[in-house]
Amino acid sequence: MSGFNIEDYPHRRLNPLTGEWVLVSPHRAKRPWQGQVEKAVIDERPSHDPNCYLCAGNERAGGKTNPDYKGTFVFTNDFSALLTDTPAGGVDESSLFQAKSESGICKVICFSEDHSLTIPEMEVADIRKVVDVWCEQFEELGKKDFIRYVQIFENKGAIMGCSNPHPHGQIWSSSSVPVEPAKENQTQKEYYEEHGTTMLGDYIKAELDKKERLVVQNEHFVALVPFWATWPFETIIISKRAVQDILELTDEEKTGLADIYKQLTIKYDNLFETSFAYSAGLHQAPTDSSDYPEWHLHMHFYPPLLRSAAVKKFMVGYEMLATPQRDITAEQAAKRLRDLPGIHYKKS
User: Fold this and answer.
1) CB-based contacts of 335: which residues, under 8 Å, 6+ apart?
2) pLDDT in tens, 3-42
3) What are the Cα distances from residue 27, in Å, to 178, 305, 320?
4) Is residue 276 in a domain?
5) C-alpha span between 170 and 110 (Å, rounded)
6) Does 273 reside within a domain?
7) In 310-330, which positions are buried (b, 16+ CB within 10 angstroms) versus exposed (e)?
8) CA 179 → CA 80, 91, 139, 202, 345, distances in Å?
């Protein structure tokens, strides 16, 4: 038997941001696919849909009417998962029965009045307006005494739980730090205390040298498939300059974030020539007025599509009961994305 190498043999990879492991089985990717194969559904939408509760001038599901907005539009979610007036309290019967009240504010951000668009089809200048709204909302919500974390995210596609195709994202701000950012808070703190530098700052320096997992980059940001990726074409956008949150970004860096957001999502759409589904979100420092020099701004993308526009990867069986597992390596996924054209397939 030849010596071990990560392109041929099963192995585990550590996610240093969470401290968790993923099983990688590259040899399985060589097996023939005999499972489900579906053709892509052509997604053609009008620029304004009278039945869409996010379109300008339409009545929302909660009964309120949207203004005749142009560009971005922000409102408090009519069916918020978190409420500002949640009474303090909880359950403390024993170590087996614990509950604590949670308060917060949930908002919706319409990216554009044009119902037919998605981020990869928008102009960078218009995506920059979305970034500006993120900054405004992060600052406004983060200043509230009872808010400790502001989670900015986008669900794209029905298979990722998006109930409306209108281009939009959400912001959930909460009185505690959620589970995933809390994990990253701890691991980044430990790394910073040991090395005196941010974990992701050191990581992208190494990745820029290796070039194996890079997808796209610009002057201020890099998008790559992380070494520890779990989803088939999972990526992460990381700022080249270590900043704790988006409020520390310069004007040029904000435009750079808008640019790489577009570049990466064009690659996604081009992969299977479909409006590529994903859940994406910014991870940044908590908003409790403390200093977090260990935090390094980044944005996760978790897409479920595996082999075509409709064949999906789900966490099932062993992954739900034991540990996450993937067949296509991070290096293979990055090369496929990197080699795709930078022009959206609808325009080529």
Assistant:
1) none
2) 888 888 899 999 999 999 999 998 876 644 334 445 555 6
3) 36, 20, 21
4) yes
5) 9
6) yes
7) bbbbeeeeebeeeebbbbbbb
8) 19, 19, 22, 24, 37
Structural domain contains residue 37: no
Q: What is the DSSP letter of 143?
A: T
Digit-coded pLDDT (tens) for 74-117: 999 999 999 999 999 999 999 999 999 999 999 999 999 999 99
Instruction: Quote the CA–CA distance of 334 and 223 in Å, as a whole number.
Output: 10
- Residues labelled catalytic: 168
Count of structural domains within the chain = 1
Model pTM score: 0.94
Can you give the CATH number for the domain in which 141 is found? 3.30.428.10
Range of the domain at 283: 13-23+43-338
Residue 38 lies in a domain: no
Q: Burial, 189: exposed, middle or buried (Cβ in 10 Å; 0-12, 13-18, 19+)?
A: middle
* pLDDT score, position 2: 62
